[in-house]
Write a structure and sequence with these properties.
This protein has one helix and no strands. By secondary structure, the protein is mostly helical. The mean pLDDT is 80.
Amino acid sequence: MADNFLERHQEEYELRKEKWLRKKKHLPKIKRQLEKPDDEAL
């Protein structure tokens, strides 16, 4: 086994995760309007 194998992969994972989270946060959120029927008794 190579030295620092797990540590290196953990660091790469953390960087990818941080990049993904930053990208995810900048996406516009889609707010859905709930369509309510005119007659609430249905």
